Every structure is written in C-alpha cells, then in structure tokens.
Amino acid sequence: MTSGGTWGHYWGHLPYRLKMCPQMTLTAIQIKNAKAKAKTYRLYDGNGLYCEVTAKGQKYWRYKYRYLNKEKRLALGVYPNTSLKDARLTRNQAADLLAKGVDPSAERQAKKHREVELHENSFARIAHEWHVKFYQDKEPGYAKRVWRALEKDIFPVVGSQPIGMITGPHLRKAILNIEARGAIESAHRALQICGRIYGYANACGYTEKDPTRGLKMAIAPPQTKHFAAITEPKEVGKLLRAIDGYEFPVVKAAMQIGTYTFVRPGELRKAEWNEFNVEDKVWRIPETKMKLRKPHIVPLANQVIDVIEELRTMTGNGQYLFPSVRSYSRCMSEATVGAALRRMGFAKEQVTGHGFRHMASTLLNEQGVWHPDAIERQLAHTDKSKVRGTYDHSKHLPERKKMMQAYADYLDSLKSSADVIQIQTVRRKV
To answer: 270, 357, 377, 400: which is the annotated catalytic residue?
Structure first.
C-alpha cells in the first residue's frame, strides 16, 4: 500500500473515529503560521471544516456539506476573529441542523430575515401603520389626539424597540409614567390604544405577544367625572339669556342648537345642511360622525327650526351650518363654543359645550316624566343592559319628539323667568 491510489482507497474506508482523531486535525499553531502562497489553498480540519488561505494571506473558515445530493458551503467566520475552536463549534451546530434535515445555509438566511424583520418592525412603525389604516376616516381632531398620546407618552419609552421584543415591564414603565403625573384617565386610554395596536400586530403576524394583557390592574382605577355643567334651573335660565345676547350670530346659533338638542360638541360643529329635514323636523347624523358609529336621529323642536331658518340666511350656501371663519370648506373649531362661554363670563369649571348634555340629562331625569331609555337614546349612549338594548331608537321616535319639544319649551320658560317652571306635558303611560 505504498502507491497513492492504494493509500487513498485505504483512507476512504477508515472508521469515522480515526478520521477525527486529534493527530489528523488542525492545530491553532498551524492556522496561525499558515502563510500566503501564489494561489489560494485549503487546510482541512475534518468533518467538512477547512480554512481557506488566500493569496493575500486572509484566512476564511468554511463548512462543506451535502444537502439533497448537492454540495454546498457555509461561511463560518474569518481568522483570527473566529478561532479554530469557534469554527468547530459553529460547524457542529450546522451539522446538528443537517442531521435534523435542515439546510444550515437556508436556516441562516431565514434567521437573518427574521432578525431584519424584527428590528424593522418597531413599535412606532407598526403603530403608524395601524393609525393610517384605521384613523384616516375618523374625525381629524380625534385621530390627532390618539397619535399625540403615542408620541408624547409611549414612543419615548418603547417606540424604537421591535414590537415583538417589548415586554410587560417595558410597557408598564410608559403607562406608569403617565399615572405618576396624575393623569389616570390618560393612562387607561394609552393602555387601550396600545392594546389595539397589539391586536393589529397579532392579526398581521408581526408578533404573537401582547404585553398589554393584565396591565390594567397596575393602574389606579379611573375616577368618574362629568363635564362641567349648570343644572340648577335658575342658573340654567341665566346661561340661556347670556347665550341669546351673544354678539356673534353663528356661534350664538351653535350654542342655542346645542342646548336644545344636547348632541356632542363634535356632532354639533360638523353639522351639514344636507343632514336636516325641516319639513319632518329631523336631523339625521350619519354613523361616521357618531362616537359609537351608529346613525343618530335628533328630533327638532320648533325653536330649533327657527334658529336653523335664521342661520340659513348666513351660512346656507355652504356645506356646514357652522363653518370656520378662516375657510367655509371647514367646520367650526372645537374650541369655539368653549371660548364663547368664557367670553360671556362662565368659567370652564362652571360649564362647557359638552356640559349641555349633562344639563339635559339631569333636568329630564329629575322630572320623572320620560322613559329613561328615551333619554339615553337621545343622548346616543350605549345600551346599559340587554333589556334596555331592546329599546329601538327609531321605533319609539314619537315619544322622543314629544320629549324634545317639551324640553325646548321648558328651557324657554327658564330663560324668560327667574322662577322655576315645571315642564308641561302628558305623563307617559307605564
């Protein structure tokens, strides 16, 4: 067995443990002392591992293997940053994958793709994608407030982190920062927003985690508080007289209609002429403008019809009943009514535009004349129970029409007299 062919045949049949014996593998000294030659050459360590020495003296670790009957190579690092020991360890890990039927090269590419995707999918990027998709058709002011809450309180803490790597403690820190400044309700809202973002991320496959779960218990419960409102009848009369004397007619009309109809401020200022049917005395607000995304019917008292007809001579040629002073293509600012109330001498702790709703709810419920569900439906509140949920807003519209006219008459009576005058109407049959 002195010929090359004979020794080659003999070597090919040696047991695996002899092929891997220390005397037949590379040493760290050999790798260190390997010099550049005219052409690239290889130093074999065994079991597919070798060191490729280039003509410039660079040394690359490679792993040669076969997968699906095809010869493939996997780069394992560059010497001396990757030592012989490190190269063997990586080779063994690749061999383990191969033994499980996994292509080490394909697995490496998949891992790189996962890592890139993970770091590209930051919380801030996914939040932006969610916001664009679900808030582009929402009321601009509301959409802006949601985004501002994220920018102010959430992004500084977790915005740049991959959404799939954010843990409960990470997010809890951002939420508790909000709570620490006394903004309990804002903390709960921020957590709800984050929960929606994670629901979207889960559905899109960006992550399977949801660190918002259970965090509600880490925040103090929100305190129930109503918008400032005037509910004492005598004071209500003073407010109504002040509104009638306000110097700017369009804003005055907005406040008058607001007190008579007690719709939400956003629904009021975005009212459009095509939503009103004066003949039927009905204002139909589309679901896109409603908080609960359900269409709402507002019966119009005679007093409201009078205000509308007068207002038509001022803004009837445009889209909105209450256009912006800067552009008739936009509706009145959300701060206009509040500013008018302040201008009339009412502090924000006394009354707000939203307070007209609380005023109506208090006065109507205290009178004990109307079905509680009629009041709740007219306020466009969500159903409190399955029983109350059966009260259909359009089916019982006649009772609500009577209620709205009687309420408008009652407000006028308070406005014209300092005495408390009880509402005149036929008591509902139970």
So the answer is: 357
Q: What are the backbone angles phi and psi of residue 137, rounded to the nearest 5°?
A: -100, 0
> Which residue from 191, 171, 168, 187 is spatially nearest to 179, judged by alpha carbons?
187
Residue 291 among the catalytic residues: yes
Whether the CB-CB separation of 423 and 410 falls below 8 Å is answered with: yes
- The question of whether 354 is a catalytic residue gets the answer yes
391 classed as catalytic = yes
Degrees to nearest 5, angle at CA 338 with 349 and 231? 50
CB atoms near residue 173 (< 10 Å):
11
What pLDDT, in 10s, does the model give residues 289-328? 888 778 899 999 999 999 999 999 999 999 999 999 888 8
Catalytic residue among 128, 196, 238, 381, which? Answer: 381
For the question of residue 264 being annotated catalytic, the response is yes
- Kindly calculate the radius of gyration of the chain based on its CA atoms and give it in whole angstroms: 37
At 11 the pLDDT is: 40
Q: Provide the angle, in degrees to the nearest 10, between the axes of the packed helices 184-204 and 168-180.
A: 150
User: Looking at residue 137, what is its pLDDT?
Assistant: 75
User: Can you list the pairs that 235-241 forms with residues at least 24 positions away whose Cβ atoms lie under 8 Å?
Assistant: 236/359, 236/363, 236/411, 236/414, 237/414, 237/415, 237/416, 237/417, 237/418, 239/346, 239/351, 240/411, 240/412, 240/414, 240/415, 241/415
Q: Exactly one of 59, 289, 354, 377 is catalytic; name it.
A: 354
Let me know if 381 is a catalytic residue: yes
Residues of the chain with pLDDT under 50: 1-23, 384-391, 393, 419-430
Distances, alpha carbon 251 to alpha carbons 215, 242, 314, 411, in Å: 43, 13, 12, 19
Per annotation, catalytic residue among 138, 391, 393, 396? 391
**pLDDT at site 348:** 85
| Pairwise CA distance, residues 375 & 170, whole Å | 44
Residue 224: predicted pLDDT: 56
The predicted model scores a pTM of: 0.54
- Selecting among 88, 188, 252, 264, the annotated active-site residue is 264
Tokens 């040394």, residue?
Answer: 59
Clarify whether 66 is annotated catalytic: no
